[in-house]
Amino acid sequence: GENVEQHPSTLSVQEGDSAVIKCTYSDSASNYFPWYKQELGKRPQLIIDIRSNVGEKKDQRIAVTLNKTAKHFSLHITETQPEDSAVYFCAAPPGTGATNKLIFGTGTLLAVQP
Amino acid sequence: DGGITQSPKYLFRKEGQNVTLSCEQNLNHDAMYWYRQDPGQGLRLIYYSQIVNDFQKGDIAEGYSVSREKKESFPLTVTSAQKNPTAFYLCASSILGTGEAFFGQGTRLTVV
C-alpha cells in the first residue's frame, strides 16, 4: 500500500525566512498531493494541493512542487509569519482503485519565531 | 451552516466500556472517513465509506466498528477490544473523485 514519509518533524524559522517541508511517497500511481495545516486544538484544513499533471502550484506565500520521477513533493512557505506556526501534514492517495482515502505523513511542527 | 460536526468534543470512559463517537455532515458528500491522531504519528485511517451501507477497513481498524446507514452519518464505535483507545479522533468527508477532505473539529477520547 501507499507509504508517505514527511521531513522534518519539527522546523523552527525566524519571521520572514522561508520554510520547506518535504514528503516522499511510494505508490508511483498516486495522482493527488494535498497539504493540510492544523493549528493547535483545531481541525486540519487544506491549504494547497497539486495533481500529478503539473509540477508546481503557487498561492500567494505558499507553493507546492512535485517531482514524479523521484516521488516527492514539497511545501514552500515564503516570508513566514507567526500565524504560520502550526502542524503541517502532507498526504497522498493510493494510486490503484477508485478510493479517495488519503494516507498522511507524520506531520511537521513549524514554529515561526518573531 | 454547512459542514461536518463531531460530538462530543471531549469524552471520558472507563476501561472495558464501548463508546460511540458521532459524525454528521450536511455537505452531501458521498465519502466519509475516520482518522486517529496520536502525537508524532500523524493521521492514521481507521475506516472509510464511499457509499451508504458500505465501508472498508483502513490501516488500524482492529478494535473499532462503524456503520453507514445514512449518507449524512458515519458513527464510530470504539470497542473494549481496542488496546489503546485514548486518542484524538477526526472524522472527514469528501466528494468522490476530488480528493479534498473536510474535517470535523475532532473528539478527544480519554479512557481511564
Feature tags:
heterodimer, A: 114 residues, mainly beta, 6-stranded mixed beta sheet, 5-stranded antiparallel beta sheet, 54% strand, globular, B: 112 residues, 4-stranded antiparallel beta sheet, 0% helix
Fold blueprint:
The complex is a heterodimer of chains A (114) and B (112).
Chain A: E1 4-7, E2 10-14, E3 19-25, E4 32-38, E5 45-51, E6 56-59, E7 62-67, E8 72-77, E9 86-92, E10 103-104, E11 108-113
Parallel strand pairs in A: 2-11
Antiparallel strand pairs in A: 1-3, 3-8, 4-5, 4-9, 6-7, 7-8, 9-10, 9-11
Chain B: E1 4-7, E2 10-13, E3 19-25, E4 31-37, E5 43-51, E6 54-57, E7 64-66, E8 76-78, E9 87-94, E10 102-103, E11 107-111
Parallel strand pairs in B: 2-11
Antiparallel strand pairs in B: 1-3, 3-8, 4-5, 4-9, 5-6, 7-8, 9-10, 9-11
Q: If you had to describe this structure to a student in words, what would you say it looks like?
A:
The complex is a heterodimer of chains A (114) and B (112). By secondary structure, chain A is mainly β. Helices cover 0% and strands 54% of the residues of chain A. The termini of chain A are far apart. With 112 residues, chain B is an all-beta fold. Chain B has no helices and eleven strands. In chain B, the strands form two sheets. In chain B, strands 2, 4, 5, 6, 9, 10 and 11 form a seven-stranded mixed β-sheet that branches. Chain B has a four-stranded antiparallel β-sheet with strand order 1-3-8-7, with no helix packed on it. The relative contact order of chain B is 0.33. At the A-B interface, strand 5 and strand 10 of A face strand 4 and strand 5 of B.
Oligomer: heterodimer
Termini separation of chain A comes to 41 Å
Mean pLDDT score of chain B: 92
Q: What structural class do the secondary elements of chain A suggest?
A: mainly beta
Short synopsis of the structure:
Chain A has strands spanning 4-7, 10-14, 19-25, 32-38, 45-51, 56-59, 62-67, 72-77, 86-92, 103-104, 108-113. With 114 residues, chain A is mainly β. In chain A, 34% of the residues are buried.
